Amino acid sequence: MYQRTILDNGMRVVTERIPHLHSVSMGIWLNVGSRDEQESESGLTHFIEHMLFKGTEKRSAQDIAKQLDAVGGMSNAFTSKENTCFHAKVLDAHLPLVVDILSDIFLHSVFDGREVEREREVILQEINMVEDTPDEYVHVLFNQTFWNGNPLGRPIFGNMRTVQSFTREMILGYLDRSYHPDRIVISAAGNVDHQEFLKLVEPVFRKVKRHSHGLQRIPPNIASRVDLIRRDLEQIHICLGTLGTSMVEKERYCCSILNVILGGSMSSRLFQEVRERRGLAYSIYSFLSSHTDAGMLGIYGAVRPDNIKETLELIRHELARFKREPISEAELRAAQEHIKGGMYLAAENTDNRMSRLAKNEIIFGRFIAYEEIEAGLEAVTSQDVQALAQRIFGPEVMSLVLLGQVDGLGIDHTILDI
């Protein structure tokens, strides 16, 4: 059963009770992410996420870890382009402890100067690790290319220059400017009673005060570019993308179906043609990256340099095929069932249900029933998918990044003519 309460300061509390379970997942969600940073602050939201586990006024970092371990609990945090989340999962009997720990780190972290320096080195090593991992780094490069100078294109973890500049004062100033009650959602799913949960969270979180200043997100202007970036690698890593759908557009259901058929499953056209039939790549897939006001549909693959042109031509052929002819009814139904199956399997995990509660509240301001999503998927037709492909598969909204031994390939913007 879903329930929702708005505290006096504007903070929202949402729960979903699943009484036959023995566990509860709780999360503190903020509608604040890396796209909300100034350029000089790039990576600061992610830095703060790390720092909140480094000690409070009454708990050390070791205390936090020990107390959760002592009850078999699991905790974590993450930063995305638009959100930050601190979450934990425990047996239902230990929910008061989780509320106490998460509220303590969220409201009373001390940001000790020595811990700031230690964590700075950890994150600098994280940046180095990503840059040393080409199948990850090509996505960082592609985002910078595709989003064309918009904050959405910056890496969530920042860069060497910005991370080295962070100070305790910058952290506190960013918290004061960004962490407003009306941007915070507290969610819980599992064997949790809404009123009992409110008794735990309201006395603590109602103290968070409203602020008069807020954040303004800059809508992106999509660029169309081809960037060839040389590195001494055995493979060339491909990232090609085009305009997708936002999280709120009606066409999001259609775009999800197109993605599954294109490269989002093992039976997809790209996987079958590039890997299974031709043996050109071990890894080839498509993916969706959706935000509140924009989206991107991307393709990733990695191949030997002597196979790059054939692979790109196969990708172009498959994209053109979507524009040229409707997908079959069998493909459409299989994609719809694939998405529904994944949705309902994920629903058996309390972490996923807790996340879904918070995201729906942040994005739509309401609970979205699974039946509503099913109806949206089932309303999509083959003609809808073809019309979407005709709109988004074209050189004016597509970009390509190649990372590897790219010298002398002779690839230019005409590769995007589909």
Write the layout of secondary structure elements.
Blueprint: E1 2-6, E2 12-17, E3 23-30, H1 44-51, H2 61-69, E4 74-79, E5 84-91, H3 95-108, H4 113-131, H5 134-146, H6 160-165, H7 168-178, E6 184-190, H8 194-205, E7 226-230, E8 236-243, H9 252-262, H10 269-277, E9 284-290, E10 295-303, H11 308-324, H12 329-346, H13 350-363, H14 370-378, H15 382-392, E11 398-404
Helix pairs in contact: 3-8, 9-12, 9-15, 10-11, 11-15, 12-14
Short description:
Helices cover 43% and strands 18% of the residues. The protein has 418 residues and is an alpha+beta fold.
Model description:
The protein is an alpha+beta fold. The protein has helices at 44-51, 61-69, 95-108, 113-131, 134-146, 160-165, 168-178, 194-205, 252-262, 269-277, 308-324, 329-346, 350-363, 370-378, 382-392, and strands at residues 2-6, 12-17, 23-30, 74-79, 84-91, 184-190, 226-230, 236-243, 284-290, 295-303, 398-404. The protein has 15 helices and 11 strands. Strands 1-2-6-3-5-4 form a 6-stranded mixed sheet, with helices on both faces. The protein has a 5-stranded mixed sheet with strand order 7-11-8-10-9, sandwiched between helices. The radius of gyration is 23 Å and the shape is globular. The chain starts with a strand and ends in a 14-residue tail after the last strand.
